[in-house]
Amino acid sequence: MYDFSKTYEFTIRSEEALDAALGKNEIVAMDAESLLALLRTKTRRVSFGDHLKRYIYEHIIRQGDFSAIETKRFQREILDHFAENRTPLSFTPTSAKPAALAKNWLTQASVGRPVVFLLGFGLRMTVEEVSDFLTKALGEQSFCFKDPRELIYWYCLKNSLPFGRMQALLATCEAALGAAASPELALEGTCVLQDQASRVSLPAELIDLMQGHGIGFTPGGFSATASATFEALYERAKEAVAGARAAGGAGAGAPVSEAEVELCLYAETLFDESGNLKKASASTLAAQFGSKRLSRQRLRDLRLKKQPVNRFDLITLNFLLYALDDGRFETPAKRYQAFVRDTDRILTECRMWPLYTPNPYEWFLLVCLLSPIPLELFWDVMEASFSQEEQP
Questions:
Q1: 223 within 8 A of 309, measured Cβ to Cβ
Q2: What is the pLDDT of residues 303-355, one digit of tens each?
Q3: Of 51, 141, 150, which is closest to residue 105 (Cα–Cα)?
Q4: Distance from C-alpha of 60 to C-alpha of 54, rounded to nearest angstrom
Q5: What is the pLDDT of residue 302?
Q6: Collapsing DSSP states into helix, strand and coil, what is residue 211?
Q7: 189 in helix, strand or coil?
């Protein structure tokens, strides 16, 4: 029988192994090779398909040996519940067979956000459960309240409205709001918008709220709170990098660029002959760390608001700040504790969940901060991950 007390974000084995290791004193004395071995053998991200299977088992099947249930059983549960709740398996017309779509969801490492919203209606999830799938199964932000469709999905799921009612409300809002989003929308704080939406009870009030904030049916602005937080951290990171440059005898020089922040974070050994970060796919930690890298291109895109800020951007920048701050903390343990408090505050203010130690990347950064030389340990493990071949 599957243990319902366990979360389904990561494998139970990984969660127990990482949390146990983080609590041991000997973790501080680990060298890069040992730490890399621990990361490679004790961590494995659960695919979206496995998240979905575990959810269906917990909330629908609830009996039998989880590991013995075939994919066809989960596939049948999806199809039956979608039919019962009158929910299509696609937002747009498709020639794909429903059984093939359901099987695809159950076998994919990741899916697009629309699939999560369809599952929310088709399986009658709570709004909190849909948010968990977005943030923990996909590793993305929760509902985007500046996107009119996602705001409508959130409202309907929160009020247990079926897919048909959602479609009707969507059509009403499209007719009332038009196609253009207000230029001021990008400046609106996501937290403010979410707080106001939480007090809405009637569809007419939702439309009034959207009209009042200039929300239209074009992609809305990114979270102003997360963007502002990122900018503040980035400016502090540039100051810290400039200080490290001066301490190394390089002098003031030119203003710190995205490339210099990237170099400070990843060290010369992680770059190829062309001066670019080595491909993440070449690392034996690609599955755990590949999408978390804060490259100069990623930094530039975030500053130009071409991409939304995610939790790993904020965590990584704050890690760099604490790793470079050698003089403020008496011991690595005090630096670690201060980082946890500060990072949890930052994430909470941006409406993201706090540090999550079963996540291999977040766990790894915390372990590095327990070292007297956090950046050096970070570099050494990353470098070793490129020099070792993956073991079968």
A1: yes
A2: 998 888 888 999 999 999 999 987 788 898 899 999 999 999 998 888 677 88
A3: 51
A4: 10
A5: 92
A6: helix
A7: coil
Taking phi over 0 as left and psi of -120 to 50 as alpha, with beta for the rest, 161 belongs to beta
Burial profile 26-64: b = 16 or more Cβ within 10 angstroms, e = fewer: ebeebebeebbebbbebbebbbbbbbbbbbbbeeeeeee
Euclidean distance between CA atoms 170 and 173, whole angstroms: 5
Q: What is the pLDDT of the chain when averaged over all its residues?
A: 83
| Under 8 Å between Cβ of 170 and 149 | yes
Percent above pLDDT 90 for the chain: 43
Q: Which two tokens stand for residue 293?
A: 């890298």
Helix (H) or strand (E) holding 167, with range, is: helix 163-177
- Please count the other Cβ atoms lying within 10 Å of the Cβ belonging to residue 333: 12
Distance CA 15, CA 358 (A): 5
pLDDT per position as a tens digit, 364-376: 899 899 888 999 9
Give 271's strand partners.
277
SS3 state at 10? strand
Backbone angles phi, psi at 10, to 5 degrees: -140, 165
pLDDT at 55: 96
Give 377-381's long-range contacts (Cβ < 8 A, gap of 24+). Answer: 377/32, 377/35, 378/323, 379/266, 379/267, 379/269, 379/270, 380/31, 380/32, 381/32, 381/35, 381/36, 381/39
Cβ–Cβ under 8 Å, residues 190 and 146: yes
Query: How far apart, in whole angstroms, are the C-alpha atoms of residue 217 and residue 20?
Result: 47
Q: Residue 132 and residue 273: Cα distance in Å, rounded?
A: 41
- State the pLDDT at residue 9: 41
pLDDT tens track for 311-321: 899 999 999 99
At position 275, the amino acid (one-letter code) is: G
Q: CB burial class (10 A; 0-12, 13-18, 19+) of residue 171? A: exposed
| pLDDT in the model for residue 79 | 98
Give which of 207, 197, 141 is closest to 169, Cα–Cα. Answer: 207
Average pLDDT over every residue of 157-180? 89
Q: Please name every residue paired with 277 in a beta bridge, in sequence order, or none if there are none.
A: 271
Domain boundaries, the chain: 47-137, 142-221, 224-387
The single-letter code of the amino acid at 138 is L
